[in-house]
Structures
1.
Amino acid sequence: MLDRIIKSNWWKWTGAFLVFFSLMVGLLTPLAPGIVSISPDSLQAGDSISIRIKTVNAHFLSKPAGLQGALSLENQYVIKSSFLHVLSDNEIQMSFKFPGHFSPQKGSVELLDLELASDYDGFLVLRQSVKLKPYSGKDSLIIHSISSSPATNTETFKVKSLTSQWFSFPYREILYESVRNLFFHVVMWFAMLTLFLISVVYSIRYLRSANKIDDIIAAESVQVGLVFAAIGIITGSIWAKFTWGDWWPNDPKLNGTAIAILLYFAYMILRNSLSEDQQKAKISAVYNIFAFPLMFVVIMVLPRITASLHPGNGGNPAFSTYDLDSHLRIAFYPACLGWILISLWIMDIRIRIRKLEEIRENQLVESSL
Amino acid sequence: MKPIFNFMNLIGEVASDDQFTGLRAQGKIYVVVIVVALVFLGILLYLASIDSRLRKLEKKD
């Protein structure tokens, strides 16, 4: 049954199609709207102020329905804009009449979130972007610290939970467009994990059957898995440089991956250092069975316990709604499956070459006898 | 680095700020371009190595 599937071609073309699909969706989907800059970015309690806001990918002029803006402090105090003037799709002028009693204590500054929402573009926020300085009026009686006085004209933002209504990838500061690397970097590791899993399964099978083909499959899937790991390391390094600011930040996920790759390099070196075929197969199979759980622990378990820059680690659930929204999933899951199938395709070709090599060697041995 | 062609038409307008220069320009889309190119290059190099292995096998004939 499994043999028939492996010999057929449909899964290879499925893999190719899925990768193509994820490439198209991953590169052509626009990014959700976001706030880029605001000026001025500070105000004084008791002031009337006009703030100019620049956004990207928004449609405030062409689809203005439900448009509103606000300044908020930790989502508890919300001051809605008193006047809102749309200059273009991505430029808005908002006025605020800021009450004097809504003031930080003298000498301190509070950081406010700037919020924008419309029916079409959903909810946009630039966190801690507006400095609020304390009230400087003469009447010192109306100055209270924010934490002790509830603001009078707070109105909850009703559209807060909405994401944009058009198909888009989430706008994240620091990441921006590079969120698309999810379909090109992260999937490499899923391919690698699948190949290493297949490898350990065939290593176990070899120890039970002593069939040489099982050993070949185990060795070749580690080979292909290491190539995908190398691509994953290089692409990850580039992505880290331009988001986290370092080619190799000291992150448990990265260091764990380095250890895992060294583990499997050792597997290849071990194989090449043993000349006797059966001994080679047996020892490397046993090593592989130890290497796989160790690899799983340093890549998947340890980074989850300690703090890590990677999402889904340091106690955060992987694939939470924040890290991986439903639009990203539409391209991410096909990309994963597609790259796994492509890696299996490459593995299949290598195994067939290896089998031919074995046959050829046996022929040479027979003819020399 | 100046954009080779304007991605804005393709994927919508993106952030352009002073701190976004070089590969960080245009909302860091060039990081994606490099990553996709490297994935492609990696697969291509691997293809070449498999090809040379097959060539060796053919030569043994």
2.
Amino acid sequence: MTNYSREEMDELIAQFLSGNATAAEQQQLEDWIEASAANRLHFLELREAWLATARSGNYDALSAWQEMRTQLSPRLVWYAGWKKAIRIAASFILPFILGGSAMFAWVHKGTPGANDGMVTITSPKGATTRIELSDGTEVWLNAGSKLQYAHSYNGLRREVKLEGEAYFKVQTNPQKPFTVKAADLRILALGTSFNVKAYPEDKTVVTTLIDGEVKIDGSATSKPFNMMLRPHDHVVYQKPVTDNEKQQPAAAPGKSSAATPVATKAVDNTEIYTAWKDGNWIVDAQPLSEMAITMERKFNVQVIFQDEELKAYKFSGTFRQETLEQVLNILKLTAPLKYSIDKGTVTVSVDHLLKEKYANALKAGK
Amino acid sequence: MEYKTLNIRRESSELADFEQLFKVHYDALCTFAFDMVGRRELAEEIVQETFLKIWERFSELKIEVSEKAYLYKAVQNNCLNCLKQDRIRQRYGTELLQQIESRTSLMNLHLHTPAEKLEHHEMESIVETAIRRLPPQCQDIFRLSRFEQLSYPEISRQLGISINTVKTQMTRALKKLRDDLLPLLKPGK
């Protein structure tokens, strides 16, 4: 080790500083630095010179900010003082709650008895929440969604229960598959990223696999099934119709009882289904009736249609950080609608003047 | 873990201040973090996480030293902490992680807040002058390595020279810069 010439050491230092040293070379350097105070001083001087020459690394502050912003949720107020109960018991095996927006999530211990030992995290309407579980698994919880898991999470099992929509980035652990319970499905994952949409009021549970491997266990459903997913698979499971809905004549007659409740397709662009986690919203030929449901969750409002015909208008496009008003104004550019917003209620109706204008423009174009 | 309960009403002006702070310093802090850990994506992650922590107590934050000094110190601390996180540990293999860790501690060894020096507004032009004084080939190689972050093999291919030449010239550049800059880096001495 002492055989290195000064020149060789200097070469090694330059290699190290510029990121060109191998692990072994770095180890040599470390040993050399530790060998004497003079060596250390020599290294520190060269390092100072290197650090002094730092200049812009062309990091994109703008897009980094946009990404961060979604984790800050500016329009909301920190609920605190509100309940000292927010203090998390130290005994939690514990979800690290990261990011500003996570503070909006209401975390509370389940009342003993019914929900013994359960942690519930709720993402209120109008905000998304990012959570990191004790095993490093990351969960993005969409607006108006709820995630539950036992205090003992990652002890023997890794199991969570979802009502609503979440994007999971699961840490690999072949010994303990990660399980999401959504409606009457169990979705099992090894290391993987996938999105599950399972709002209680929806008629379906939708699973989209981004990468890795996921298994859907439908053995507890009325028509048991099991399936393996491959990346880009998009699986829609029709929940059994409840008695309430059966009485309504509008519900698809007879169809759901005969056909298999699961439909799979491969999608090219999974981003449509996961963009929400970054604060974006992609629609692809989506009728306004469906968009209204998303708007209600995303902006914590109620949407009322004054004219039924508007529900059928379809839209495609990407919204980034737009406010509710901006979204509606964009929709107005291509559909004859007008809106009013009053205390959390959005009323949309046909704008007859605009409709006429669009009709004329269409005719003129032909 | 426990987090403080806060009773804060977020004013939009506060967000604007925070945004300003972020946008002004982001690039320089990432560049600094990159020197510490040697990985671009990790550097950005560290800086963003630092800002998220700052945001959590932004309104009660009283910065006693300069803003810049505070941010550099925070990023510096976070570089070391970040590598302890399981999430990061699992991303890199043991060997790579060890190398990153040892790099980070070597870069942090006796490193005082770099901001005192960075407060010199003229520093950048002094550095640029010193680089210009390097012989032409030596200068090109140094710039490609330092500012374009090219590896030795990449530089050798780009300039059509041997890796050995790159090695020698980089060493030469570094030593010359030390001779030129070191007296200026120790103000008052």
